[in-house]
Amino acid sequence: MNILIMGGPGAGKGTMSARIVEAFDVNHISTGDIFRSEIGKQTELGMMAKSYMDQGLLVPDEVVNNMVKSYLENLEDKKNGFLLDGYPRTLDQAKAFDELSKGSDLEINKVILLNIELEELTNRITGRRLCKDCGEIYHMTSKRPAVEGVCDKCGGELYQRKDDTVESLQVRLDEYNRLTAPVMNYYADKGLVYTIEANQPMENVWADVKKALEK
Ligand code: AP5
Ligand code: ZN
């Protein structure tokens, strides 16, 4: 099964992706995570992406499309399929992915849409902390680590993403409304979308996501 997870910045895509990947044994393809890893390695791709990401702007379509294509081509183990997280994020990306996947085992079967009022996202984004070593996602109120600043899972140091500021979030929301919202309609027209209420405790969101994927 090939799944796409969508939702605004901070809707909980990364949090639910970790659970989906574990429960359904699919490959996790997060374009945001891939870019952050390239930035960490200071590659040319990473440095280019950083200039957009720090401001909250989207990286150009062609760059993202080529990156996802080569990522999928180089997967060693296809597992039970894949989970796309943060891609496609514009209509042009969705159309490019259709071209790439048409008639192949790369076609998207289900789209999970995490629905949440935009006001709630500020709290989620500004309270988010991440583990430097294993990527585990925390929150200062809804998912606190046992020891402040330290990952429960691996003992790694927690940090805040550079684009998790109120200013950057405003740009990300504008980009989302302008460029990503139309992608939802594109997949809704294909009858693939399952809308999940994301403004609930994590366990409830997960129960709904799991149910939709098991249908
Ligand atoms: P990306 O990394 O995809 O960021 P995003 O879409 O803004 O999403 P986030 O990672 O911020 O949030 P999330 O929905 O994963 O939420 P999380 O689970 O962490 O993209 C970053 C940038 O990369 C883009 O701005 C762009 O520049 C570039 N980029 C990436 N893909 C691109 C593409 N395709 N095209 C062009 N550019 C691209 O949760 C948030 C917080 O809330 C956490 O602290 C969590 O603990 C907490 N939380 C989660 N669920 C709940 C709950 N139910 N209750 C309470 N708290 C919760
Ligand atoms: Zn960790």
UniProtKB/TrEMBL annotation:
**What sequence ranges are listed for the domain Adenylate kinase active site lid?**
128-163
Q: Which residues bind AMP?
A: T31, R36, L57, L58, V59, G86, Y87, P88, R89, Q93, R161, R172
Identify the CDD domains for this entry.
ADK
Name any Gene Ontology BP term: AMP salvage
> Where does this protein chiefly localize?
cytoplasm
**Which key words are in the record?**
ATP-binding, Cytoplasm, Kinase, Metal-binding, Nucleotide biosynthesis, Nucleotide-binding, Transferase, Zinc
Q: Which HAMAP family match?
A: Adenylate_kinase_Adk (MF_00235)
Q: What does this protein do?
A: Catalyzes the reversible transfer of the terminal phosphate group between ATP and AMP. Plays an important role in cellular energy homeostasis and in adenine nucleotide metabolism.
Binding partners and assembly: Monomer.
| Protein known as | Adenylate kinase
- Organism field: Amedibacillus dolichus
| Organism taxonomic ancestry | Bacteria, Bacillati, Bacillota, Erysipelotrichia, Erysipelotrichales
